[in-house]
Structures are given as C-alpha cells and as structure tokens.
Amino acid sequence: MIRTPQTAVPARRHSAGFVLQLGTILILVSWFGASAAQKLVDPNSVAPEYRAVAEKRRAEQIKLLQCTKKADEAKVLRRDRAAHISECLEK
To answer: With a threshold of 0.70, does the pTM exceed it?
Structure first.
C-alpha cells in the first residue's frame, strides 16, 4: 500500500494520542502508588494533646523502616521477611 499524505496524518494522530494516554496512565499509577505508602507522622502537625502519641508512632515507624532496610540489605527472601523484621523489632 502506498502511503499518501492523507493516510499518514491519521496514523500520527493515533500514535500521538496513544502516547498521551499511556503517559497519563503511568503518571496516575505512580501517583496512586506513592500515596498508598504510609507517611511518617509529624508530631508538630498534630494537636498538642496527641503529640506524645504521635512521637511514639513516629519512633515505631522509623524503627520499622530501619528493620526493612536491613532486610533489604541482607537480601532476605520474601517468605522469611516478616519473621526477620519482627525479630529485628524485638531487639
């Protein structure tokens, strides 16, 4: 089939539309994935009566992140990961 300028233009429109749709989907997926992660508690952003609890929760979150990082560095298998992290948290 011989391509003429009239048949080439719709093909470009479709490919540009596909690229835009794919880009939009990738951005939305990465955005929702990041928001699903648990964020560190900021004790300064909560009411004063809840500040002590927020500080305790933040300390727990930091310790959990450290234990998770240790499990990553030790290349612990996924099936053994929970046991490794809980053992690290008990120390």
So the answer is: no
Backbone torsion region of residue 85, taken as left when φ is above 0, otherwise alpha when ψ lies between -120 and 50, otherwise beta: alpha
In sequence order, what DSSP letters do the residues of 19-31 get, joined into one string? HHHHHHHHHHHHH
Q: 50 and 20 in one domain?
A: no
Q: In the predicted model, what is the mean pLDDT of residues 24-38?
A: 64
Domain count, the chain: 2
Largest CA distance in the chain: 76
Do 28 and 47 belong to one domain? Answer: no
- Domain range for 14 is 1-37
Distances (CA, A) of 37 to 2, 32, 50, 82: 52, 9, 22, 18
